[in-house]
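Dear H.,

Thanks for agreeing to be a second pair of eyes. The structure we're designing against is below in token form, covering all 861 positions.
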């Protein structure tokens, strides 16, 4: 028997699909078209399984969460068929209408012969309060996503993914290899991208919206579905109240706070994969209780959806279910019926996932991109004993992580009777093992690299909080009422910053939108749209890393380089691309070097961009205002080689004429910040590290300044030998003593300082990082005969405490995710400590004096 409540949304999806194909909704706003296309393609078909009784715990109210997973798996199968046949997958924008209609006919035929769903499964006992709370959570999440949209900033992964979708639409290929580079070949295979991206491309095609708009608008549909998915886990843990509490917890705690953009990144394959793998776990937990073919089917289908979205989830499910199995064995001290059922279901899931995973492994497996494989995200405990950087727990979960260790005892006590609660414990222990057990880190980090940090997202913190809230509310009416009240008060106190952030976002979303726009491609979008329309053929554009990152996002053109870690892990040339682009756009480079880069990567156009709100500290190099003027002057002086196509003052597009470029022979202008090293006038100062340059001198001005003023300085560096290509950073730090009468022990000096700063509302340390000479002259190009004058500026924070500050400087060769020491979290003498090179006095008010102070490193620093 078919459950009509599920057939209605399924058939609505078919109807919307037909209307979109017919163009009947073309006059509707883009948000309406994207929501309609998204529902028709990636939600509605999934209700077919629900109509046959494959429903999550919690029943119809939560069914749309699983429907999303079933639809993603359904579409993935057809995408694989299209790919195997060699046809353009874009035909599915039309073909899926017939395929989905056929699916519903099949469901109707099967349903006529099936037994009715038991009443208990149809009506699991929702209270009015729980239903209202759940609906409010869904509405709040969707409303916020609709008002702010998915983040489009170039500091996010969005340009990477949108460029992939745009190229899919242009080529009809499920796995395009030339998204960014025309010459990528097999190196363009990206293991991070599976079969979710072409589904977003189909939504873009069906809704007739640009991929940028599709990407921005889809979270409005997906965020409520994420909340429903988490609510299903909450229901397994603690019934309807647990479901509603878990949904709210997702909104308030995902990524630490509602003010963070992480939840609005719901369209990201990693964020969707997190939810689909969690749905698979909920299906496994339901199967342990119901022991039915329907729940086992749900587990396999949802697991397939997760893995086809991102292959990482094959490993994640294997680890999470493996840890759960160990927990069940420890609970029963034997292989009992529950454990046997889990193992059998895990085998079924593995059998379903194995063909796809094996096939993807032949396409793109071992990472060879040095930017990805370089040791990073590590934390040294002592003498080479390392774990993953546990600071990532705070960065990605906020203060909520403290709930996990505080819950261990309670989770074990309850988990001995309830498998769902036990899963919370075993997953938390698993993540702690992956991050903090040195032998495990030593084994896995060379193979997985910084991906180990992603294991933080495995901890189901929202369901855990939902469980605690539901349990505490229930205990308010019993003998443990005082303890329950204390727990609820503690969670409210812990969550107060998150609640405050949520209130600000809901009250004034424009404040957050303005902040995101400052880091967005929107400031030069009109020029990118022009670039997409004007050249007849696909071009290869040479530009700075940030602009290069946004060009394939908005246009059909390729680029020479991308931003930092956004190249495919399979690209062994990522650093070469990055630093070649730096050299070709160096106003002081030789024309021979420019020609070499243009020929190597086939560059046909140059884009210079000076519209950044502020200068950025990137991993390798970044465009600066001081760079734009000289670089533009150089190209403008050779119009035969660099023909201006678009000139908007601070955004200029040139066409490269290769023959004319060959005729350019003028010597490059000298670098004004490079001086010849005279050994008779001063020896090499000591270095903190052997693999970085030495400090020859330092100057900062003014010596006395007010809060809010800008300090300007110059550090003189010299390298005694050639240094390798890599990421280098200069940290300039300002430290003053704590208030009189307080001197904490060295081993807790940093947390003690932070407590004092928080209590007094002022800081006693501030720091500014910059690329050496702004990245204009790569450290790997410095010569032993040169002294480099590295200019920088630092704005004194408005909350800096008045007083005398020691100025410290350090030159660092670092990985994209820095490698810290455990002591860095406790000692004020940390990773960024360097030579003390001077002193600056900060006062509350006043103007910058005209004179500065010059100092040099003293012996022994």
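And this is the sequence the design step returned. I haven't edited it by hand at all.
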């Amino acid at each position: 028997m078919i459950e009509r409540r599920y057939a209605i949304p399924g058939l609505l999806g078919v109807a919307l699909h037909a209307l979109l194909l017919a163009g009947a909704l073309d006059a509707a706003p883009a948000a309406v078209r994207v929501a309609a296309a998204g529902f028709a393609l990636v939600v509605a078909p999934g209700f077919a399984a629900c109509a046959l009784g494959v429903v999550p715990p919690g029943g119809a109210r939560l069914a749309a969460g699983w429907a999303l997973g079933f639809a993603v798996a359904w579409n993935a199968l057809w995408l694989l068929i299209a790919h195997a046949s060699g046809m353009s997958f874009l035909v599915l924008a039309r073909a899926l209408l017939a395929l989905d209609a056929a699916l519903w006919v099949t469901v109707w035929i099967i349903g006529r012969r099936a037994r009715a769903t038991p009443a208990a499964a149809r009506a699991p006992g929702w209270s009015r309060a729980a239903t209202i709370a759940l609906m409010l959570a869904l509405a709040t999440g969707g409303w916020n996503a609709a008002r702010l949209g998915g983040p489009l900033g170039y500091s996010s992964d969005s340009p990477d993914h949108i460029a992939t979708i745009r190229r899919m639409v242009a080529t009809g290929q499920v796995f395009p290899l030339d998204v960014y580079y025309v010459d990528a070949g097999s190196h363009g295979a990206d293991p991070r991208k599976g079969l979710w991206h072409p589904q977003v491309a189909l939504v873009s095609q069906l809704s007739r919206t640009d991929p940028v708009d599709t990407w921005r608008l889809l979270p409005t549909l997906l965020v409520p579905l994420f909340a429903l998915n988490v609510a299903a886990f909450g229901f397994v843990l603690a019934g309807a109240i647990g479901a509603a509490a878990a949904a709210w917890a997702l909104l308030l705690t995902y990524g630490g706070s509602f003010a963070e953009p992480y939840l609005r990144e719901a369209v990201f394959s990693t964020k969707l994969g997190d939810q689909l793998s969690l749905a698979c776990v909920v299906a496994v937990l339901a199967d342990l209780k119901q022991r039915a073919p329907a729940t086992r089917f749900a587990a396999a289908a949802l697991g397939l959806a997760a893995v086809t979205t991102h292959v990482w989830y094959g490993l994640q499910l294997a680890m999470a279910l493996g840890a759960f199995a160990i927990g069940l064995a420890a609970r029963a001290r034997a292989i009992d019926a529950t454990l046997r059922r889990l193992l059998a279901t895990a085998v079924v899931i593995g059998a379903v996932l194995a063909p796809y995973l094996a096939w993807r492994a032949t396409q793109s497996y071992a990472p060879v991109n040095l930017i990805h494989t370089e040791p990073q995200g590590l934390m040294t405990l002592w003498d080479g004993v390392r774990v993953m950087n546990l600071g990532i727990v705070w960065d990605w979960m906020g203060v909520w992580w403290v709930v996990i260790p505080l819950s261990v005892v309670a989770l074990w006590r309850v988990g001995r009777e309830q498998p769902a609660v036990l899963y919370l414990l075993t997953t938390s222990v698993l993540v702690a093992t992956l991050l903090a057990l040195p032998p495990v880190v030593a084994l896995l980090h060379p193979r997985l690299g910084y991906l180990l940090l992603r294991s933080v997202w495995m901890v189901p913190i929202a369901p855990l909080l939902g469980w605690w809230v539901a349990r505490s509310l229930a205990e308010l009416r019993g003998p443990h009422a005082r303890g329950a009240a204390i727990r609820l008060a503690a969670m409210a106190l812990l969550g107060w910053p998150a609640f405050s952030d949520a209130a600000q976002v809901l009250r004034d979303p424009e404040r957050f939108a303005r902040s995101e726009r400052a880091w967005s491609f929107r400031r030069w979008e009109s020029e990118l749209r022009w670039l997409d329309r004007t050249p007849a053929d696909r071009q290869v554009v040479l530009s700075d890393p940030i602009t290069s990152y946004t060009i394939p996002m908005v246009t059909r053109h390729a680029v020479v380089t991308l931003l930092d870690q956004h190249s495919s892990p399979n690209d062994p040339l990522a650093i070469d691309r990055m630093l070649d682009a730096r050299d070709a756009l160096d106003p002081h480079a030789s024309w021979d070097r420019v020609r070499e880069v243009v020929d190597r990567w086939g560059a046909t156009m140059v884009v210079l961009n000076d519209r950044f709100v502020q200068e950025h500290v990137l991993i390798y190099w970044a465009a600066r205002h001081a760079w734009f003027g000289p670089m533009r002057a150089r190209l403008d002086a050779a119009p035969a080689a660099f023909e201006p196509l678009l000139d908007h003052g601070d955004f200029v597009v040139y066409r490269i004429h290769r023959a004319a470029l060959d005729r350019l022979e003028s010597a490059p202008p000298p670098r004004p910040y490079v001086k010849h090293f005279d050994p008779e006038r001063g020896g090499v100062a000591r270095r903190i590290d052997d693999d970085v340059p030495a400090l020859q001198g330092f100057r900062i001005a003014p010596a006395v300044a007010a809060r809010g003023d800008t300090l300007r300085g110059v550090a003189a560096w010299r390298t005694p030998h050639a240094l390798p290509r890599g990421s280098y950073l200069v940290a300039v730090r300002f430290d003053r003593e704590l208030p009189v009468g307080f001197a904490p022990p060295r081993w807790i000096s940093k947390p003690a300082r932070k407590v004092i700063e928080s209590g007094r509302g002022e800081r006693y340390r501030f720091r500014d990082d910059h690329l050496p000479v702004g990245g204009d002259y790569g450290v790997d190009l410095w010569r032993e005969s040169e002294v480099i004058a590295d200019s920088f500026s630092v704005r004194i924070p408005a909350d800096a405490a008045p007083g005398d500050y020691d100025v410290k400087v350090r030159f660092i060769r670092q990985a994209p995710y820095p490698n810290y020491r455990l002591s860095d979290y406790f000692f004020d003498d940390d990773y960024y400590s360097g030579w003390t090179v001077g002193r600056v006095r900060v006062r509350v008010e006043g103007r910058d004096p005209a004179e500065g102070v010059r100092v040099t490193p003293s012996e022994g620093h």
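Two observations from my side: DSSP finds 30 helices and 18 strands in the chain. The radius of gyration is 29 Å.

Warmly,
E.
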